[in-house]
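Structure (tokenized):
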């Protein structure tokens, strides 16, 4: 992790725009935060898995 406050203004602007667009893609800020919280609760963490999958497909 890096310290957000130590980043340049250009980097902060880029991250703000990136997260804003990501939130729009998933249906809003609350949905994005809910998705992030659900990923944090999964063990092993899907953000560091080699397969990088969030959900298992059911065998139906």
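Design, position by position:
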């Amino acid at each position: 992790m890096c310290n957000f406050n130590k980043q340049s203004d250009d980097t902060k602007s880029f991250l703000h725009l990136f997260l804003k667009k990501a939130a729009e893609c998933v249906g809003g800020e609350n949905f994005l935060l809910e998705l992030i919280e659900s990923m944090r609760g999964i063990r092993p963490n899907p953000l560091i898995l080699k397969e990088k999958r969030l959900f298992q497909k059911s065998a139906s």
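Reviewer-requested clarification: The chain is about 50% helix and 0% strand. Residues 4 and 12 are 7 Å apart (CA to CA).
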